[in-house]
Amino acid sequence: MPPEESFRVTPYEVRGRIDYERLRELFGTQSLTPELLERLGQLAHAPLPPLLTRGIYYSHRDLGAILDAHARGEPFFLYSGRGPSGPLHTSHLMHFELCRWFQKHLGAEMYIQITDDEKSWARGLPREETTRWGYENLLDILAVGFDRARTHVIFDTRSIGAIYPLAVDVARRINFSNVKAVFGFKPSTSIGLIFYTALQSVPCFYPSWIAHRPVLCLIPCGIDQDPHFRLTRDIAEGLGFPKPSLVHSQMAPGLQGDRAMSTTGGPEENALYLSDPPPVVERKIRNAFTGGRATIEEQRRLGANPDICSIWALWRTKFAPDDREFAQITQDCRSGALLCGDCKANLLPRVQGFLKDHAREREKVRSWAESTILESPPGPRTSGTGTPG
Ligand code: TRP
Question: Is 2 inside any structural domain?
């Protein structure tokens, strides 16, 4: 990225105030247009989810190819993932919620990658810890509610034997100068991370590889993940696989008005964890950054600014699924009819209700989770102890 930009976005660093349109231009991705969305709605025979209609997902690569394939009756599959380093925030579920919508309405297989190696390399966390979080995060992700017959999990340290031959083929085509430029690696970067992008590419090709025929892939993800898949797309054809398509979201803003709901190097108060107990949720929402005015009188007179408000962002992405209600909240915020304290009080029971339902669903998927994980095949024993002769 040119040095004159006042922000920087890579999978390993999000810095500055992001101008999302500019970022889309810099990354060279397409705008998610109303025409494309309308076509998607027609093919799905269902209303589009707020994640798509409210500009949260705003960019794509080759979504049209997926829609064309679906219209021709060809299957495609969904792929998204999580690099475990700690508990999940409410905003982490967004990509999986969009996948669930696609799976339900367009009937696609779902591949989830849990990269329990990635943050060990990227942040120096103990591998036991990232693996443990991987299992915890997987329960939260599966609790979103996927079709049990069509959901597969690639859990890096568990599934490596099944994916390694493909990872070797992928890695052979990516050289150090590619990744150095794309990810901004330094001499002190772990060598694991230099190989890692090959592992994140593998699920894009895995279904085609095992089926011996091209199966298109659609990846809902944060736009920060695009650099990985730019590399994937560059090498796809050389390997005889279709390029994956993507839909990109903006980053969910944090509760403290930071650029992303992240607690990496930041305060605990910035994110709502799925496991936060009710009093903690209440405190975090009460203290959350809003677009309100300094005094009630001023707010009544001038209205508030939802565009910078972390509470409004929660309504927008998740907690006001009804468009009429969402429009009303936005209007009342701007006009000054709705004060921040009341708005927070209205939101709180929605969040508590969601977390309670989520915790229940999470328990229900516990016994199923193990069987979703792609196991490394035992493979032929060609050497080592116990081999006869
Ligand atoms: N790198 C992602 C993270 O840091 C994890 C991930 C793996 C992922 N495969 C993915 C994210 C595919 C989106 C799509 O969390």
Answer: no
- Cβ atoms of 226 and 23 within 8 Å: the answer is no
Is 5 domain-assigned? no
Strand 57-61 relative to strand 30-31, pairing: antiparallel
Per-residue tokens: 268? 């605990």
Taking the centre of ligand 1 as the mean of its atom positions, its distance from the CA of residue 200, in whole angstroms, is: 7
> In the prediction, which pLDDT does 3 show?
52
> How many angstroms does the Cα of residue 343 sit away from the middle of ligand 1?
33
Note the pLDDT tens digit of each residue in 97-113. Answer: 999 999 999 999 999 99
Say how many Å lie between the CA of residue 377 and the centre of ligand 1.
Answer: 24
Angle at 20 between CA 19 and CA 24, to 5 degrees: 120
- Provide the domain limits for residue 57: 25-389
Question: Is position 31 within any domain?
Answer: yes
Q: Is the CB of 113 inside a 6 Å radius of any atom of ligand 1?
A: yes
Q: How many domains in the chain?
A: 1
200 lines ligand 1 (CB under 6 A): yes
